[in-house]
Amino acid sequence: MADTKPATETLLEFPCDFPIKVMGLANNALAQAVLDVVLRHDPGFDGATMEMRASSGGKYVSLTCTVKATSKPQLDALYMELTSHPLVKVVL
């Protein structure tokens, strides 16, 4: 019998390092807000590893956080909380 995985499965093997890119308006509160959310889902995350890049016009900023992903539900919850934050425009 063929081994089939449910559609909810992922190609990722856990645990793994998983980069998440968050974009929003350049705002002093954005980095702290993203850090607070990430720490709720990955308490071992080191905020000093967060990468920040401003857009060419300086209006937007992107933050890259490489989290220790332990499960698909953990990543789903992290994405949901980040995308619902008022300072966040896009999460990739």
TrEMBL record:
InterPro entries: UPF0250_YbeD-like, YbeD-like_sf. It comes from the Bacteria. Pfam families: DUF493. Belongs to the UPF0250 family. PANTHER family: UPF0250 PROTEIN YBED (PTHR38036:SF1). HAMAP family: UPF0250. This is UPF0250 protein IPL58_15555. It comes from Candidatus Proximibacter danicus. The lineage of its organism: Bacteria, Pseudomonadati, Pseudomonadota, Betaproteobacteria, Candidatus Proximibacter.
